[in-house]
Amino acid sequence: CFGFPLSIFFIVINEFCERFSYYGMKAVLTLYFTRFLHWDDNFATAIYHTFVALCYLTPILGAIIADSWLGKFKTILYLSIVYAIGQAVLSVGSINDLTDHNHDGSPDAIAVNIALSMVGLILIAFGTGGIKPCVSAFGGDQFEEDQEKQRSTFFSLFYLSINAGSLLSTLITPSIRASECGIHSKQECYPLAFGVPAILMAVALVVFIIGSRMYKKVKPQGNIMLEVSKCVGFAIKNRFRHRSKKFPKREHWLDWASEKYDKRLIAQIKMVLRVLFLYIPLPMFWAVFDQQGSRWTLQATAMNGDFGFQIQPDQMQIVNPILIVIMVPVVDSLVYPLIKKCKLNFTPLKKMTVGMFLGSMAFVAAALVQVQIDNSNPVFPAAGQAQIKLINLGAVPATVQFKPQLQSVDVAPNMETGYMTFETSKLKSLDIISGNENKSEHLELTETLRYTLAFKWVPTGINATWVKDNVTSKPEDGKSLVRFINNFSFTVNVTMGDMDFGKLDPLSVSNYSVVPNPGWSYTIKASLPQYTCTVDSKEFGYGGAYTISLDDCVENKLFVTHFEDIAPNTVHMAWQIPQYFLLTCAEVLFSVTGLEFSYSQAPSNMKSVLQAGWLLTVAVGNIIVLIVAGVSAIKEQWAEYVLFAALLLVVCIIFAIMASFYTYIDPNEIEAQFSKEEKKEDKKDQDSNEKEAETDSRL
């Protein structure tokens, strides 16, 4: 088909579906841990990076199975089945109603959900990791030797399908997650958010099977990684045996393997080890890079995602693949040629060093954003303190005096004050003065709590009500809270959208309820004794808390006043774009160049060894994050960002020093030299055999 083997179209479609499945599931994973399983941020981060680390450790196992035992086709087939089962198990494990027998909206046996989720993630890790090294190589196997151009086009289509799957899934699955579903209670729809990737993985498997008769299936030919491991192991073992000084030293410790392995293989392994030595500092970059899906997503939950339409916190990850698609061609066709024209020797290792530096700067930018978020957060009372907010619901100005002689506050009609902090041991009472009336309140406040004092002047005196706010922190997960206060002189029944706040007596306050979609406007309905009044609410900000006063009703139109108890998220998600931009620049310089450098410095038959080494650095990087998240005593998130930025900067300097001692080689020249020597030896052997044959014939 158009000069291509028909089989490769099945492989490209399979890859698109598989990448959609993986990135779609991964995009919502951190919020699933914190919001559904209710794990704290550090534990959720640790488990997330454990999963990613496992995804990058298993490709080595997949490559060995494919090359030494099952072959690529069977490895992809069997592990894709494991992968699809894992996605299905994860989706089932996220069903809230699975163990919610009392229908209260919370699982009665959360351990069941956790167990299913962990089993699902382990199966996914083995599935996605195991097929990772096989699919692209299997696609390459479909071409004949003279189809180099078509093979190159295939790899372009292959990586395009990866980016397309990543882009679409990161956009779609967070939107599905943000919707509500459930049998007995409506909550964030994780079963569908994980279910769609599970369906796509099943589609990927079916598509792959449909094309099975068209594939060219190359038999397993042995795995070079095992051969390299055996050679290195024998060299170390032989060197240890001959550690006595009576044995002469050899030029390189690998030369101790020469008794068993040929010189060409030893020379090839030496080339690989020179590159692998440079890999030692690289995990620190991945420790920073992979926090896009954990710490940066959690950071986005405390930010304002209003772009004219609402962006979900886990959708911000889409910035990276979008920028990659734009920047790779720009850097290749514009930036690098410009640097070359300026006659700057911008070697691959220098590019990687600059990439690490930019990665460090990305986390400095993240720290600055975090400082802004922390500064915008409300200050809650500390030990020995309490906070009081005043709301004047009447039409007459009032003055409140805090005693003994602490302060005096004026409150205008239908207005509120901010929360004022007092030492509970010092504040004994207060007086409310409004009109010609004076009301005294004796106080016994509980420390670390917030209180709201709502009052109004009426002809018969001053009516007042005290409310414990029962909110000790800013609403999590970007949710908003709302409550109502009845400013009528009679009992009313209050609803807002589908939420029922029940009957409220005069000047009584409802409990806070979670607003399902803070960006929406809801119809507030107050059922009075003889008629019903309605009004549309204002849009609620994300992460805020509000009190709505029901003030009056004229011609069935309800008049209300919105009071802001906790300010919504004010730092905009757009402020994350600079850190994503810096990290994407770092990825282009570091990751793309790193692979290119590795392949240019490795012999043709050792590419898979370096690929395994590269994936191992990603796994170790994620292990670093889970260790830091698990043992770090740092309480401030901005300080943790600064720590990672500093560590990467130090590693960047170490890598720059190591790189300065590296000498670039051409593996093809070295291999050609070995081929020449082998030909000479073969010729000598041939000449020797001919002479022997001639001597024998004379005899």
TrEMBL record:
Residue ranges of the region described as Disordered: 675-699
Classify the protein's membrane topology as the record does.
Multi-pass membrane protein
Asked if the keyword Membrane belongs to this entry, the reply reads: yes
Catalysed reactions, semicolon-separated? glycyl-L-proline(out) + H(+)(out) = glycyl-L-proline(in) + H(+)(in); an L-amino acid tripeptide(out) + H(+)(out) = an L-amino acid tripeptide(in) + H(+)(in); L-alanyl-L-prolylglycine(out) + H(+)(out) = L-alanyl-L-prolylglycine(in) + H(+)(in); glycyl-L-aspartate(out) + 2 H(+)(out) = glycyl-L-aspartate(in) + 2 H(+)(in)
Q: What PROSITE patterns does UniProt report for this protein, alphabetically?
A: PTR2_1 (PS01022), PTR2_2 (PS01023)
Say if the entry is tagged with keyword Cell membrane: yes
- Using the UniProt record, give the first listed, main subcellular location: membrane
* General function of this protein: Electrogenic proton-coupled amino-acid transporter that transports oligopeptides of 2 to 4 amino acids with a preference for dipeptides. Transports neutral and monovalently charged peptides with a proton to peptide stoichiometry of 1:1 or 2:1. Primarily responsible for the absorption of dietary di- and tripeptides from the small intestinal lumen. Mediates transepithelial transport of muramyl and N-formylated bacterial dipeptides contributing to recognition of pathogenic bacteria by the mucosal immune system.
Subunit structure comment from the entry: Interacts (via extracellular domain region) with trypsin.
Q: Which family does it belong to?
A: Belongs to the major facilitator superfamily. Proton-dependent oligopeptide transporter (POT/PTR) (TC 2.A.17) family.
Q: What is this protein called?
A: Solute carrier family 15 member 1
Q: Can you name the source organism? A: Loxia curvirostra (Red crossbill)
Top-level taxonomy: Eukaryota, Metazoa, Chordata, Craniata, Vertebrata
